[in-house]
Amino acid sequence: MNAVSYSQSKTVVLDITLILTFTFLMVISAFVRISLFFTPVPITMQTLVLFSSILILRNRAYMSQALYIFLGTVGLPVFCKGGAGLLYLLGPTGGYLLGFLAASIIAPFFMKGNVSVVKSFFVCVFSMVIVYFLGVTWLVFFHKFSFGTAFGAGVAPFITGDIFKIVLATGISTKLFGSSFRRGA
Fold this sequence. Notes:
By secondary structure, this protein is mostly helical. Helix content is about 65%, strand content about 5%. Strand 1 (about 35) and strand 2 form a beta hairpin.
């Protein structure tokens, strides 16, 4: 085996390991939840995992999100409260789950080359906006919430915590890769 193919093999193994790790972390973080009495959307640690996966996996982050959604859709109890199946995706948190996938596809386009801490922070904020947009849109169109109610139930209670998770994800990726890092461009 020559040096190039060995290096590529190591990269593939690392990528697969990270994708599976972030998929597993999404499952675990779905069970770390706080239910709020005024909203069907719980507080979980999933956005922390999402933000971290985008910063670390970059253009492969969608693979962990797609695998997570696939596992839940085929019936494994990986969603919040042990939920599973296609019908779960039609529930009030379905838009957020699809938002995780959309954010993991779109946000890495802004992660080319070396990425500063500030850019990492704003990429995560952009990811958060994508998740909120799809989550609120889902609540409005599929669950007949008014926009104000959907915003109050699906965004407002989560902003502060998600900003904290963004700071944490940015710190984790910076600690792992330095203040200006290049991983999986």
